[in-house]
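User: New here, please read:
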Amino acid sequence: MYTPRHFAETRMDVLHGLIHDYPFATVLTNTAEGLVANHLPFELVDGALHGHVARGNELARLDGAEVLVVFRGPDGYISPNWYPTKQETHREVPTWNYAVAHVHGRLKVVEGAAWLRTLLERLTDRHEATEPQPWRVADAPDDHIEKSLRAIVGIEIAIERIEGKFKLSQNHPERNRLGVIAGLRRRDGDGDAELAALMALQEESKA
């Protein structure tokens, strides 16, 4: 991934935070038929990514394969009109701000029913937490859960390396960065609040 120095994010807690907050990822791997992409949610557990796929998915047959897992955080179009310097020099152009983490590792296929059930319980408990009456795996009949478990396999990816790129206007002076935050908050489109919050957190870390 092309990453200019000022956009590189190497703090592991920040990268793990992005993975936690944006768990739906793209898994890329090379097969005999060429590049393959799959999309699935992950849980970060003890330095590894845990997920699951249907038995018919090609990933279920790629034990040991090298994979790249892409996690995308908030992103958004940035108008040059938000830069105070644009009003002075007119030498600014549009861009796109975003945050991503690229996880490199090798895929391990996991067959154990107990491992899979633990993962499903972890996933559902987390994502049902905001529901008025959260659904639990135990709410379904045992025979239905057993049948469902037989239809999937676990995916474990031990993280070998993480690349982080947080393109958040670091190449601009502070007043331009603050102008972008204000512009995102004013526009308030899809994902704008999250991107503004991430940029504001970055400014706080510099204080």
In short: Strands lie at 24-31, 34-41, 43-45, 48-54, 66-78, 95-110, 152-167. Residues 5-74+97-170 form a domain with the Pnp Oxidase; Chain A fold (CATH 2.30.110.10). The chain has a mean pLDDT of 95.
